[in-house]
Amino acid sequence: MAKKKKPVIKRAPTAGELAKWQKQRRRQHRTFIFGVLVILAVITLLGYGYYDQVYQPHHAEADKLHKTVVQVNKKKFSVEYVIDVMRFLNKQQSSSTTSSTTTPTKTYTLDDAVQLIEYDELLQQAAPGLGISVSEEDLVTKLKSLTLPSNAPEDLSEAQYLKYYGALLKTYHISDQEFRNLVTADLIRPKLQEYLKAQVPKSAEQVHVQGMLVEKSTVTDVTDRLVFTGDSLATVANELSLYTASQGNGGDLGWVVKGVAGTKFDEAIFNLEPGVLSQPIDDETGQSTGGVWLVSVLEKQPDRTLDDTQIQNLANVAYGNWFEQQLKNGLDSGQVVNKLDDTTRTWATEYMANHPIT
After folding, report:
1. How far apart (Å, rounded) are the C-alpha atoms in residues 352 and 62?
2. Would you say 302 and 231 are in contact if contact means Cβ atoms under 8 Å apart?
3. Distance between CA atoms of 181 and 120, rounded to whole angstroms?
4. Which DSSP letter does residue 286 get?
5. Looking at the predicted structure, is the pLDDT value of residue 45 above 60?
6. Contact 260, 285 (CB under 8 A)
7. Range from 124-128, 178-182, 242-246 carrying the lowest mean pLDDT
8. Domains of the chain: which residue ranges?
9. pLDDT of residue 92
């Protein structure tokens, strides 16, 4: 029979040993706590560095990009949208300009983009009230015509079209919704022009005008020649007029209707008696820089039938006036708000320089 093992009797620790062990545990605990605090401090420093160097600048930039800078009624547009539209306009201008073109091209600014956004949104908001609309089918058709190259196959699949479309958006650095807004406005414009053209009357007061456009510094010499030499207005106009369209026909400017040649020109000729030479009239037509008109009225008719060219000219004037009046009404009533100030322009310009598109 196996012998039973005697139980081992463990000696109880002395008070000194207990104190020593407790002291060691406290030291280990303090060491552990200190290590944790060091790790937390390192993490905090790293986190602050990320926040200060990456997170905060990124979010500050995003806040500025998303800041509302234009508002038309309840529709708001951000700084980023204005930048995208400006870049689109310049990219489109660059794409449509050939290397052989010698005429200087316009460089669009942030203010140009804001004006286009204001006009486009006013146009789209007013269109329903004028009975003007653009169908989704018409919009898609126009988008495809702008997207697809001339050699694209007619049986192009939707997936293939979307690939072309995505490339176009990338080229112009613009979103789908931004592009659709711009194209929709482009489709509404000719409809507004036709609407306004239909409002033009069929007849109006007109005067038959003869005259010449000359430099302001030559007015005295020209009038002296007309008065003292006996040369006719037709002769002098053929020789000296800066307005080449009337050279060779004695300065005959044809029948003029109010609202096309400019306010100063209208005020002068519609108050001028036939056969009397006018005082110099500042040129508002853009045909010269600082030039003046000297004109004479050949005849007047209080209600003469307008020809097609006159009707179209009046429609074009009404078209420009419509936008100017809509914008003025919006600004005066506070429904149109433009917050593009110098600070925003400077920041947006620096942002574009630091984030160029290829």
Report:
1. 13
2. no
3. 8
4. S
5. no
6. no
7. 242-246
8. 21-65, 69-95+107-199+317-354, 204-305
9. 82
pLDDT band at 51, cuts 50/70/90?
very low
In this structure, CATH architecture of domain 204-305 = Roll (3.10)
Task: Check residue 56 and give its pLDDT.
Answer: 47
Residue located via tokens 């004695």: 250
The two three-digit tokens of residue 87, written as one number: 């870049």
> In the structure, what pLDDT confidence band is assigned to residue 106 with cuts at 50, 70 and 90?
confident
- H helices within the chain, ranges in order? 15-50, 56-65, 79-96, 110-126, 136-147, 158-172, 176-197, 219-228, 233-240, 263-269, 308-333, 342-354
CA distance to 212, 282, 293, 336, 341, per residue, from 250 (Å): 9, 21, 14, 49, 51
CA distances in angstroms from 345 to 64, 65, 146, 291, 322, listed in the order given: 11, 12, 31, 35, 28
CA torsion through residues 235, 240, 245, 251, sign: negative
Name the residue with tokens 């053209």. Answer: 197
Please give the angle made by the CA atoms of 77, 82 and 87, to the nearest 5 degrees: 150
| Distance separating alpha carbons of residues 259 and 266, to the nearest angstrom | 7
Place of tokens 């942030």: 110
* Token pair for 280: 């110099």
Query: What amino acid occupies position 219?
Result: V
Instruction: Give residue-wise pLDDT tens across range 207-233.
Output: 999 999 999 999 999 999 988 888 899
Length, in residues, of the chain: 358
CA dihedral angle for residue 220, residue 221, residue 223, residue 229, rounded to 10 degrees: 150
> What letter would DSSP give residue 55?
I
